[in-house]
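[audit] Reproducing an earlier prediction to check determinism. Same input, same settings, fresh worker. If the tokens differ from the archived copy the diff job will pick it up downstream; this log only records the rerun itself.
[audit] input (383 residues):
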Amino acid sequence: MLGAPSNEFLEDLKVLADEQAHAARAEAEDKAWGSKEALADMRIGCALRVDFLVALTFALKLWMWKTKEVVIYLVKPITEEMRCRFADHPLAKKYKGKADALMSHAWDNEWGDLIAAAAQGAPMKRFVWVCALANRQWAGNVAELDFETMVERTNAIVIANPVPQGEITEHYHEDWQVYRRHESFKLVVKHFTLSRIWCIVEMYIAMKRSKPIIFRSLVLTSKANGTVELSSEGVSDLMHNLSRIVDIKDAVSSNPADSFEALIGAGMEDELNCAAHIALSAAAIAAGEDVSLLDAFVLGESNVLDAVAEDKVEMLLLNAVAFGYTLAVGVLLKRVLSVHVLAKAVYNAAECSRTEALKLLLNESAATNFCGEVSNHPRSSLF
């Protein structure tokens, strides 16, 4: 004969019933918006201001925490009673607004990498959409797995990537196929943002929607006085190496059910690899440069390039070409008179496979005198 259920068992059943009720309420709230589009319009307004995120990170000393730890020890406890999105909590609500950029990052990496990428060169009133803060971290958040409508409604996707120590940041690897088999590479690549399936899905959506893809990597060092020092040391070599080493097929997820076939369909790996390599090549060119004005331009601040100082025009043009920011290239070309600068820009267009930017450059009357610059480039056949 079976005995009576234990108090612990009954308590577990009560907890389960409570969680199911909370989940049902959350799903009902989302359905009450009436349509997928109306819900998406609300969700894109759950971005948070950069100055708030930086202040929060300093105040709670979160720089070296992993993002998943921020969720477990900050986001979930503070939202448990209301079962709300962190962005809707009274602590954060007055700092939320429509996203200028969507942040893509791996939860196994440090929170500080994410915040540094969001803040680098940014006006403090820029709004960035961070899934850990903009989505409910509780049951009933099924509708919030829709990232496509979020990417569609923002200006660009910013991919925050850590800068590991070791060979990959110390020098440029010519024989990258050999290096790819090293144990040191296997240890490093698991922290690379594009080694996570969901981050690749976000990049795929951005690519499909013709949204700019911005890679941001910085070295963070906590100082004894409570400040954080940022550096781009090793970033150029890191991006150059990753642009030749990364293979999307290596990506993993904490959920065994996640796969490319299930999330974006079969046969996309080669196209995604190409997009990743191009974006990383552009990031390598930009490493150590102040390209914040280009970021501002693609994030909707359309007048920021009009009064650029003369000594910045060349650098910004070369990077705009590498990133494929065609509208920015058009604005900056009006300020460039040097054939030498245009020749370098053509090379960057070939290196990063930026067809539209190259067309703009070759339409300049001076450009026709040096189009032979790219004739021997390995990617010149693309044009």
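[audit] rerun output stored. Observation attached for the diff report: Residues 306-382 form one domain.
[audit] end
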